[in-house]
Amino acid sequence: MREYPLERTRNIGIIAHIDAGKTTVSERILFYTGVSHKIGEVHEGDTVMDWMEQERERGITITSAATNTFWTPSYLYPSGSPPSHSALADAQFSDQIKNLKKTGEYRINIIDTPGHIDFTVEVKRSLRVLDGAVVIFDGVAGVEPQSETNWRYADDYRVPRICFINKLDRTGASFERSLGSILDRLTPNAVALQYPIGLEQEFLGIIDLLTMRAAYFEGEKGEDIVWKDIPEHMKKTAHAWRSKMIEKISETDETLTEKFLEAKEITIPELKKALRAATLAYKLVPILTGSALKNKGVQLVLDAVVDYLPSPLDLPPVKGIDPETGAEIFRNADDSEPFAALAFKLQTDPYVGQLTYFRVYSGRLSAGSYVLNSTSGEKERIGRILRMHANHREELKEIEAGNIGAIVGLKATRTGDTLCDPDHPIVLEKIVFPEPVVKLRIEPKTKADQEKMGLALRRLSDEDPTFHISGDTETGDTTISGMGELHLEIIVDRMKREFSVEANVGRPQVAYKETIKQKAEAEGKYIRQSGGRGQYGHVYLRVEPLERGQGFLFENAIRGGVIPQEFIPAVEKGVKEAVEKGVLAGYPLVDIKVTLYDGSYHEVDSSEAAFKIAGSMALQEGSRRGKLVLLEPIMKVEVTTPEQFLGEVTGDLNSKRGRIDKMDDRGLGIKVIDANVPLSEMFGYATAIRSMTQGRASYSMEFDHYEEVPKNIEALIIEGKK
């Protein structure tokens, strides 16, 4: 029997740029909903959602943490505010409140995601399985680089969202400037539902523009919402903002547009209904505000989650492919439909082993049953089903459509795989992850660490699709690749702490790539005669460049049996190996199409090994003829600096082959520089920018695109001098 109906279920993510206050908001949510009885603080290292040692030491989120909680909208309570923790714990509190909990309580599944660009995989895979998102912004900085990246991911997966402009108590905070940055850089459809009463040290409360009342947050932890009249000196401002809000909401609904044009009164229920519909259709994004650290505004964010973000029933049926016929099929969010779920995250737990996080789109799953992994084609037995609360677990006998859980002990399931009813197979859309841009060599300190290191690296790469391992068979070196220096630093730290592996680590290097600029053809002929049976393989290949980001394609255009069919896979294997090793400087070849169009064979001497070598030879020769070039990762860099250091900072970026796109003001003599800079020039930039600006500037960067390396730099890279 389902505990909470689907219409009262919400699956949301909390996303933002690093240090915007995501985890602080999450901790308040857990406190106000009664899950935790103490508010954890990031700066004190005792948060529930940031549970890893590395997260608590650094004060940042590294891995997404899932939890679930329950919320009855504050406006449903007779007092206009949820009861205090002591009242919730008291079995004698009124029947009226008990009844409210039965009829008005919502289950909210929450994923708190990292803000640092190195852990962007966590945001991407979380948004793939979530129905809605709360996007947090720093009230001083407004939209920051990772805010834009996360917003794009949410657009890709068509995730409705609400925004919370946080930290209005900070010096330099501005609600209007932050809202302006959202309107300019993210969406013109943002609509303010609230307006702050005061700013910085004077930030006292929030005006609700729908009801035209002022909310103040009293009690030791801001748990009591006290509604009052709007301060006299702010009434004119509030009315102006409410008019803007009503106009924007009315534009999305024909009936309300008529009422607005005829200057008729539009009721609060009408506004809320239209706003919900517009939010679900991506036509509007509600904006709320407050200060999570000062315990102001978080309960109203929960109310907005319930009011404006979708339940699983509000979304279209999930689309998939029938693995047998290739036909499109759909699954509704319904317990009676065949089971379908997506595995979106793997995590190694020291107590229970490997956990597979999954989102159920349709049907129900029981412990002890069997499911089909339709991506790999293997059947898996479901051992234990868990509901996760950060790193704590609650065992379930069954999980239904619309919920998020974890399974213990799946053997063949990886991130992005589909789990489904064996009698009704379906393959859901996979998650596409960005390629790593930084790599380093790693070796075990002792022979005893050798085997343990291999196991640890495999486990960690299973967990994180943006973490890659490669080995050089000739030198025996192991190279690990990731999204940035911090990403790889955390991986090495986790190996030491979780798997007790000591390792020597090289310095970070750029993950260059190779590609060709023009079409070319080449012959590969491998003939060996050494008494007895010889070796004969002979192929003609055509190579041609593809659009950036398209990867590698192999096409078999052999006609008339000039090369027997059994040797074609060997040619492809030889080509792939050559592509992975590279030709120019040992970096992988990308964005290249290889067509096998001719060749010959010997009835006795031809073998798979000979055709594999011939394919590799032809690829290398064809690539050289195709004007090989090196590609380097270009980073999108944002530097925030006091105006007095602007000249020095821009001069330094120019000296790093950087291209400055634009410069903006951020008030109080602060300048923001947006630039594109090669990653190879950015190692050690944190120290350089600090010494250049007396420690007063900060920067953030994220991968943007690959670009051709200038010839003079390319020569240095090939010689190994850069």
UniProtKB/TrEMBL annotation:
HAMAP family: EF_G_EF_2_B
Family note: Belongs to the TRAFAC class translation factor GTPase superfamily. Classic translation factor GTPase family. EF-G/EF-2 subfamily.
GO molecular function per UniProt: GTP binding; GTPase activity; translation elongation factor activity
Function of the molecule: Catalyzes the GTP-dependent ribosomal translocation step during translation elongation. During this step, the ribosome changes from the pre-translocational (PRE) to the post-translocational (POST) state as the newly formed A-site-bound peptidyl-tRNA and P-site-bound deacylated tRNA move to the P and E sites, respectively. Catalyzes the coordinated movement of the two tRNA molecules, the mRNA and conformational changes in the ribosome.
Record key words, sorted: Cytoplasm, Elongation factor, GTP-binding, Nucleotide-binding, Protein biosynthesis
GO biological process: one example: ribosome disassembly
Name listed for the protein in its UniProt record: Elongation factor G
The keyword Nucleotide-binding belongs to this UniProt entry's keyword annotation: yes
GO cellular component terms given for this protein: cytoplasm
SMART domains in alphabetical order: EFG_C (SM00838), EFG_IV (SM00889)
